[in-house]
Amino acid sequence: MEKKDTRSDIIRIGTELISRQGYNATGIEMVLKEAGVPKGSFYHYFKSKEEFGLAVMDLFADYYGRRMATVLQDAGQPPLTRLRTLLEGSLERFSRNQCSKGCLIGNLGQEMADQNERFRARLDEIFDDWRRLFAACLFEAQTAKELDSRLDTGALASFVLSGWEGAILRAKVMKSPQPLQDFIEVLFKVTLR
Asked: pLDDT digit string (tens) for 67-93?
């Protein structure tokens, strides 16, 4: 008989619920009901809802960071092709989700950065990890002569990350993938050409 990993189940279900409705609107009872575990189990694994929220962030950041690294570090593809593949893959998933959910880290940043310093600091770390992945790929693009060597890849990576997160927000508000499509088009036809 396979042993149930209750803590992982609680985090996984919490991730889904927080992605759909936000951190503040997701009650512990709701998560436990969906996970099919008693309230005591929650406090066995987490001291507080805040600690649970940080665990949810870490799970998503680990998953998405590995996904980004896999695509952006794929030596079998030119660097700018890798970047485009990552963004277009995110666009596809967003479209399949009927332009809802968006990026859990972006959502939590908008909701929690002004409310909770531990969340804000962890979100900043996650965004910086992602920015570094973008910067490394853009630096490779410069080395491969795909990108102007005079460009500051750190600043460009920040621009890509901020622009993409902003396009996700607009796409959620509009319930349309158009802002993401526009961002990709302008990024590759104007900014990175």
From this structure: 999 999 999 999 999 999 999 999 999
Phi-psi region of 27 (alpha: psi -120 to 50; beta: other; left: phi over 0): beta
Tally the domains of the chain.
1
76: how many CB neighbours lie within 10 A of its CB?
6
Residue 47: inside a domain: no
Structure tokens given for 178: 């158009």
Rounded CA separation 77/83 (Å): 10
Model pLDDT, residue 72: 98
Tell me, yes or no, whether 103 lies in a domain: yes
Considering the entire predicted model, what is its pTM?
0.92
Q: What is the three-state SS of the chain?
A: CCCCCHHHHHHHHHHHHHHHHCCCCCCHHHHHHHHCCCHHHHHHHCCCHHHHHHHHHHHHHHHHHHHHHHHHCCCCCCHHHHHHHHHHHHHHHHHHCCCCCCCHHHHHHHHHCCCCHHHHHHHHHHHHHHHHHHHHHHHHHHHCCCCCCCCCHHHHHHHHHHHHHHHHHHHHHHCCCHHHHHHHHHHHHHHCC
Residue type, position 103, single letter: C
